[in-house]
Amino acid sequence: MELLVIDDGSAVPIASHPKLADLFADPRVTLIRLERNNGLVFGLNTGLNLARHELIARIDSDDAWRPGKLTRQLALFGADPDLTISGTGMRLVHTSGNEMDVDLIRPGSWEGVLKFTASVGCPFPHGSILARRDLFWLLGGYSHDPATAHCEDFALWALWLRFFKVAMVEEVLYDYTVSDQAISAVHAPRQRAASGTVHAAFLATDWEAIPEILHRLADYLGLSLLETGRACFTAWRFGDPIVADPEIVSDLHRLMPDRQVIATESARRHLGGRFFYLSKRPEAMPPGSRRIAGITSARNLT
């Protein structure tokens, strides 16, 4: 285990606090002091880039985890090699004393998380997640796109949900401090607009069928769910046309309605430039294609 503390250019350096001296003396703790505050996304991605272990959790300085949080999440990962991210329930802690604290618990299953996202919005309390480092890197980390400003976590989760298996611990294991100074309060109108954009894009997918589609694609390609998600995301990310075996064209259309998917027998009539080829029959690969899933290469995608 390691603990990365990101000091994002605070006026008073965290290292100067005498009460934290023992913490920073622990060899498992690394303090990173940024020269200036470039915003939350920059700080988050700094942590992702420096993390050394396979699973990453994150939390803000004014929030708290409850005992057993990571243990319960690690048990989920240990039981399911295809699982890629887990969140937990949370308590909204009101420091003003004018409102009662509220416990929020979300559905635990993959299907339940998808349904919650479609009907409500952001699926995971950000400070509750435990997720695979390699997928943070594969998906590009948190976006600096102004269109998703102040909902960078929702933008990442919406893309994550489209290709990978997720789960929730149906128990309150995370305390979130409600504050007038929080980003969600200070930038509320802009956050709502950005969240609406992300939510609309998610609803445009065949979200309810994602688990079923990925299972079928995995069975056809002879890959695990995790490997299948990697292959499909890699085909999607560059925006090029995707050439696929006829048996999986329909499912790829449903998974990626924002991409052109063409059956192998039609490829030569429709393609003149760069494209991706997603198939378990490499002998039928059109000339000039980039092989991303000839099974062996799919297993090594990063």
Automatic annotation (TrEMBL):
Organism superkingdom: Bacteria
Record-listed E.C. numbers: 2.4.-.-
GO molecular function: hexosyltransferase activity
Alphabetized Gene3D superfamilies for the sequence: Spore Coat Polysaccharide Biosynthesis Protein SpsA, Chain A
Keywords: Glycosyltransferase, Transferase
EC supergroup of this enzyme: transferase
Span of domain Glycosyltransferase 2-like: 2-92
Protein name: Glycosyltransferase
Species this chain originates from: Desulfatitalea alkaliphila
Source lineage: Bacteria, Pseudomonadati, Thermodesulfobacteriota, Desulfobacteria, Desulfobacterales
